[in-house]
Every structure is written in structure tokens, then in C-alpha cells.
Amino acid sequence: MHPTYPALPYNYSNHRPTNVQPVVIDPYWSSTWPTIRSILLSFLMLISSAAIIGLEIANVAIEYNKDNDFKRLGMGTSKVGAGIWCGSISFLAAIFIVVIVCVRNKRVAATFALIAVTLAFFFTIILVGLTANSIERDQDLYDMQRRLIIAILSIALFVLTQCLIFFLMYISVFFSSATRISSAYY
Fold first, then answer.
1. Distance (Å, rounded) from C-alpha 34 to C-alpha 174?
2. Is residue 23 domain-resident?
3. Residue 183: CB atoms within 10 Å
4. Does 14 map to a domain?
5. Which domain holds residue 175?
6. 5: buried, middle or exposed (CB in 10 Å: 19+, 13-18, 0-12)?
7. Is residue 1 part of a domain?
8. The pLDDT of residue 146
9. What are the Cα distances from residue 61, in Å, to 20, 114, 130, 152?
10. Where are the transmembrane segments (predicted)?
11. Of 4, 17, 53, 112, which alpha carbon lies 20 to 30 A from 35's?
């Protein structure tokens, strides 16, 4: 049986005020979304993303300031500045996670954050592949530059786990609220 919806009477006039309650779009998302975990996750993701960006800027600066014939900016996997654009996307994803806590419609904000975190997840996978390849293949790296790339790799793996944690948070709230809404009508 389909749920019935209240209809306004036929003598309804558009020119007088009525007592119609606004429709709540996400009745259970506001109460089930983990606010503290979202704030903690976004804070860690902001710091990790800023660290990736900073370390990649340092890596590119070292590569640019080389005085020998090994200066090949943009010619290898460790010399393209991948941490800058990957860190920027994960930084934006962390801002989207913060927005979830601030807005009323948590379902829509969480869905936009899910899209941003998915992009950050895929770009971070690319960053992990590029940095792992540069550690393995580039023999012309200075010791300090190799340490920077290893630090970028380890922080990128930490960002990947943060993205997975957000996926789990979203899925748990999605299924818990969907269960409550479907059982309310029957």
C-alpha cells in the first residue's frame, strides 16, 4: 500500500496564509551524522594535505636549484609537482567535510563531500603510484629529496586511509537512515 499524502481542500486560496509545515528533507541524517568524527577527520585531512603540498613545493625547489646535469624539472615522476595538485584536491575535500557540520541539510552536504573525497581518493592513488615509482627508479635524487618523497608517500597513504574512513562513515549513516525511513511507513 502506498502512503497517502495530505491534500489541501478545494476551497484553498493562494492569497491567505496557511499552516503548512515545511518538508524536512533529511529527518535522520542530522541526528545520525557523526559530528565529532567529521571534525576530527577533516582536521587531520587538512593538516595532511597541507603537509603534502608543502613537501612537494620543497621537492620541486630542490629539483629546480640543482647545479649539475641532473636538473630535469618535469622530466620524471618525482619532478612533476603531483603533490601540489593532489594535496589541493584533498584539501578541498577536507573543507567539504567541515561544511557537513555547518549546514542544516547534512544529506546533501555529505553527498557533495562524498564526491570530493572520491576525487581526492583517486588523485591520491595517482600520487602514491608516482612517488613510489620515483623512489624505485630515480637514481639522481639527493638524499634529502629522497626523504621528502618518502614523507610524501607516507602522508599520501595516510590520506588514503582517511578517505576510506569517510567512505565508511557515509555508508553507515546512509544505511542506518535508510532503514529508519523505510520502517516508518510500514
1. 12
2. no
3. 8
4. no
5. 32-184
6. exposed
7. no
8. 83
9. 62, 33, 18, 15
10. 39-62, 82-103, 110-128, 148-175
11. 53
